[in-house]
Amino acid sequence: MAALHITKDNFDSEVLHSDKPVLVDFWAAWCGPCQMLLPVIEELADEVTSAKICKINVDEQPELAAQFDVMTIPTLIVIKDGKIMSRSSGVIPKQEILDRLNV
């Protein structure tokens, strides 16, 4: 399954009120490091069933990027029960992402 695309319209229901941990990838199409991370995010979306894997395009959703003070991309945020559990910027290895999700 592909990563879920998040907008301000579905953010609350899909992320804040999720019954699973949620990995949110803040990205942009023009961002080289984001493109490097893209295959990893899609692999996680296919492999991980105990968490939601989501993407937010910062160009299309600037309000959400501002809400989370995203200044550099890619930024990965793990949210559980509506709270930020982990945050990182830049490309990180798949295993580190899995560790942050605790799966």
Automatic annotation (TrEMBL):
<feature type="active site" description="Nucleophile">
    <location>
        <position position="31"/>
    </location>
</feature>
<dbReference type="InterPro" id="IPR036249">
    <property type="entry name" value="Thioredoxin-like_sf"/>
</dbReference>
<feature type="disulfide bond" description="Redox-active">
    <location>
        <begin position="31"/>
        <end position="34"/>
    </location>
</feature>
<feature type="domain" description="Thioredoxin">
    <location>
        <begin position="1"/>
        <end position="103"/>
    </location>
</feature>
<keyword id="KW-1015">Disulfide bond</keyword>
<dbReference type="InterPro" id="IPR013766">
    <property type="entry name" value="Thioredoxin_domain"/>
</dbReference>
<protein>
    <recommendedName>
        <fullName>Thioredoxin</fullName>
    </recommendedName>
</protein>
<feature type="site" description="Contributes to redox potential value">
    <location>
        <position position="32"/>
    </location>
</feature>
<feature type="site" description="Deprotonates C-terminal active site Cys">
    <location>
        <position position="25"/>
    </location>
</feature>
<comment type="similarity">
    <text>Belongs to the thioredoxin family.</text>
</comment>
<dbReference type="GO" id="GO:0015035">
    <property type="term" value="F:protein-disulfide reductase activity"/>
</dbReference>
<keyword id="KW-0249">Electron transport</keyword>
<dbReference type="Pfam" id="PF00085">
    <property type="entry name" value="Thioredoxin"/>
</dbReference>
<dbReference type="InterPro" id="IPR005746">
    <property type="entry name" value="Thioredoxin"/>
</dbReference>
<feature type="site" description="Contributes to redox potential value">
    <location>
        <position position="33"/>
    </location>
</feature>
<keyword id="KW-0813">Transport</keyword>
<dbReference type="GO" id="GO:0005829">
    <property type="term" value="C:cytosol"/>
</dbReference>
<feature type="active site" description="Nucleophile">
    <location>
        <position position="34"/>
    </location>
</feature>
<dbReference type="GO" id="GO:0045454">
    <property type="term" value="P:cell redox homeostasis"/>
</dbReference>
<dbReference type="InterPro" id="IPR017937">
    <property type="entry name" value="Thioredoxin_CS"/>
</dbReference>
<keyword id="KW-0676">Redox-active center</keyword>
